[in-house]
Amino acid sequence: MSDDNPTAPANDNASGDPLANTAWNLPAVLLKCAAIAVVIGVPWLYPNWFLLGSLGWVALIMFAARRRRLTATAGSFLIGMISLGIAFHWAPKSISSTTNLSETMSHVVFLGLVAWESLAFAMLGYSASALSQPPTTAEADSSRGRSWLWLLVPIWVAIEFFHPQIFGWSLAHTVLAYLPLIQIAEVTGTSGVAFLVMLATVSLARLGLHHECRRDWIEFGMGASLIASACIAGQWRASQWQDLAGQADSIRVAAVQVDPSKMGSVSEMQRMSRSAQTPIDLYIWPESSLGHYHISLENFRDEVQTAMNSEAPNPAIDPFPGVPSELLAGGKTYDDGGRDQGPYKNTAFLIDSTKSIRSRYVKRSLLPIGEYVPGETWFPFLRDWAALDSTLLRGADDAPLTLAGNQKVGVLVCYEDMVAENSAATTREGAECLIALINGSRFTDVDTLQQHLWLAQLRAVENRRSLVRCAATGVSCLVQPDGAITDRLTPQQSGMIVASVPLLRTQTIYTRYGDWFVYLATAIAMIGVIVMKANRRRRADRQPANSN
C-alpha cells in the first residue's frame, strides 16, 4: 500500500511503515521535509514573509495527513529540527560565548534543545496522521471522516502551551507583521492568535486534501469566514486603541541604549540623558547599568556611605548627578553577608531628583541556563558548564512602581517581557504602562535581539499597555497598545528614544483571567478525540455486517 494513501490503516509497525521498508522513496520524503522546513523557518528571520511561512505549515499538515503515524511523526520531527535550526541559528555561538562549553559541545547542546522543541512538531504530525487516516474503508468513503482534522486546531493550542519550551516561540509570533490578526490577544492571549493561524492552516490543508464535494467547500468557507471576521474585528480594535492611546494621559520618557559592559558606560548614559531637549518625566537605563548594592541602601547622596554599601569596583556611586526628575535603572542588590559573593537579586531602582531610592523591583522569573540550570540541585556540575559563578534569587512582588506624579509603571527585567503572566500580573496590580530593562550585551547576533523583541511584542496587545523596551544593545523601542512598534533604535548602536508613553487603566479579559482560552481549547480537544474514537469504533463494529 502506498505511503500517500489517505485510507491507509492507522496501525503503524516496522513492517508496514514506508519510511522503514520502502528505501526508494526515503530520499523523496527527506527532500520534502527539508523544503517544508525552510519555508517554515525563514519567516522567523523575515517576518514580512509570514504568508510563505503559513504555506509551509499547510504543507506540513498535508505531508503528515497523507502518511502513516510513524512516518508522519518522524518527518514532522525532522521538519521541526531544520526549521528551528534556521530560526535560532545564532544559539550555538551564544551558548559558546556565555558558558564554559567548547564550540563543539555548544552545537551538541543546541541540537539537544532543538530536538526537545521539535517534539511539538512531532506531536502535530502524529495528530494530523491519526485524525485524517480512518481505520476502516467505510469511514474513508464518508465525508464525515474528513472533519476530524479540525481537531488539530485546539490540539495544537494545547501542545504549544503545555510542552515546556526553551526558546519561547509560538505560531502566533509568525504573524506579528499583520497587526489585525493579533488583536484577539487581548481576549485570549497568545494562544488565541496561534488558534487563528492554525485554523487558517488546517482550512487550507483540508481543502488541499479534500475538495471533491460541496461539504468540503462549505467547511472551508466557514473557517475562512471566521478568520476574516477576526481580521475585520482586529482592524477595528486596533484603530480604536490607537484613538484611546492618543487621548490618554501620558508621561515623557527618555530611554537610553548603551552597552553597560563597556568602559565609561555610565558617563555615556549620563551624557545622552542630559541631551534630551524636552522636559522628561522618567529617564530609563538598561538592566545592569548600575552596580551591586546592599539592600539597606536608601539613597545616593553620600558617596562614602554608598561605597560602604556596595561592591567595588562600582561604576555608579552617584548614578545621575542633577537628574531633574526620576531615573529607572537596573543593578543588583544583596543582603547581609552577600557582599562580593551573593546571592543577588536582579533589581530595578527608581531614583528621584533628591537621589533617594523611591522604590525597587526585583526580577521574578529567572532565565534558564543564563541565570540557573534546570536540575542544578541534583547535578551541581551543570552550573560550572553554564559558567554561573553567582546565585540569583527570585522576586515575588507583582506591584508596579509609583512615580512622583502617581503614575504606575510595571517593570520587567531581562527576558521577563517574554513571560506573559508577569506582564498580566503587574497590570492587574495597576500598571498603566510597561517598561522592560534588558541587557543582552552578550548576544552579538542581531537576529537574537530582533527575535527577543518579537517574542515580547504581544505583551502590549494582551494587556493593552504601551511597552517601553530599554535594551543595552537593542532593540530599544516603544510598542503601542495595538502592537505597532514605534521610535525604534538600530541594534548594536548607542542611542536614545524620547517619546510620550500613553497611560491606560482598562483591564482586558486576558489580563483578568489569564490563559482561560488554553484550557477551553484543551477540553474541546479531549472531548473531540473521545467522540472521534467512539465514532470510529461504532463504524468499525458495523463494517463486517455492511460488507456481507
TrEMBL record:
<dbReference type="Pfam" id="PF20154">
    <property type="entry name" value="LNT_N"/>
</dbReference>
<keyword id="KW-0812">Transmembrane</keyword>
<protein>
    <recommendedName>
        <fullName>Apolipoprotein N-acyltransferase</fullName>
        <ecNumber>2.3.1.269</ecNumber>
    </recommendedName>
</protein>
<feature type="transmembrane region" description="Helical">
    <location>
        <begin position="217"/>
        <end position="236"/>
    </location>
</feature>
<keyword id="KW-0808">Transferase</keyword>
<feature type="transmembrane region" description="Helical">
    <location>
        <begin position="178"/>
        <end position="205"/>
    </location>
</feature>
<keyword id="KW-0012">Acyltransferase</keyword>
<dbReference type="Pfam" id="PF00795">
    <property type="entry name" value="CN_hydrolase"/>
</dbReference>
<dbReference type="InterPro" id="IPR003010">
    <property type="entry name" value="C-N_Hydrolase"/>
</dbReference>
<keyword id="KW-1133">Transmembrane helix</keyword>
<feature type="transmembrane region" description="Helical">
    <location>
        <begin position="104"/>
        <end position="126"/>
    </location>
</feature>
<feature type="transmembrane region" description="Helical">
    <location>
        <begin position="147"/>
        <end position="166"/>
    </location>
</feature>
<comment type="similarity">
    <text>Belongs to the CN hydrolase family. Apolipoprotein N-acyltransferase subfamily.</text>
</comment>
<dbReference type="InterPro" id="IPR036526">
    <property type="entry name" value="C-N_Hydrolase_sf"/>
</dbReference>
<feature type="transmembrane region" description="Helical">
    <location>
        <begin position="516"/>
        <end position="534"/>
    </location>
</feature>
<keyword id="KW-1003">Cell membrane</keyword>
<feature type="domain" description="CN hydrolase">
    <location>
        <begin position="251"/>
        <end position="503"/>
    </location>
</feature>
<feature type="transmembrane region" description="Helical">
    <location>
        <begin position="72"/>
        <end position="92"/>
    </location>
</feature>
<keyword id="KW-0472">Membrane</keyword>
<comment type="pathway">
    <text>Protein modification; lipoprotein biosynthesis (N-acyl transfer).</text>
</comment>
<dbReference type="InterPro" id="IPR004563">
    <property type="entry name" value="Apolipo_AcylTrfase"/>
</dbReference>
<comment type="function">
    <text>Catalyzes the phospholipid dependent N-acylation of the N-terminal cysteine of apolipoprotein, the last step in lipoprotein maturation.</text>
</comment>
<dbReference type="InterPro" id="IPR045378">
    <property type="entry name" value="LNT_N"/>
</dbReference>
